[in-house]
Structure prediction request, 75 residues.
Amino acid sequence: MPITVKCFANLTQFQPENSEAFDISDNETAGSVLDRLGVPTGQVALVFVNNVITGRDTVLKDGDSMGIFPPIGGG
Prediction:
């Protein structure tokens, strides 16, 4: 089942080449996708699934869209 995965800011280095059709297994979670992409846990501030903030334990479904954001600072 494919989903869309989009990594933002300094996490773009982890975005898969097939980001518009990233294959997942049945009952795969956002956390397992992060692990498969090799995104360090400490570098993730927010995960969105279908434009809603979620957690690592969110089960993904066919056609979902997942956004991954790092902590952002400024001043």
User: Anything to note?
Assistant: The chain has a mean pLDDT of 95. The first helix runs from residue 30 to 37. The domain at 2-69 is CATH 3.10.20.30 (Ubiquitin-like (UB roll)). Strands lie at 2-7, 22-23, 46-49, 52-54, 65-69.
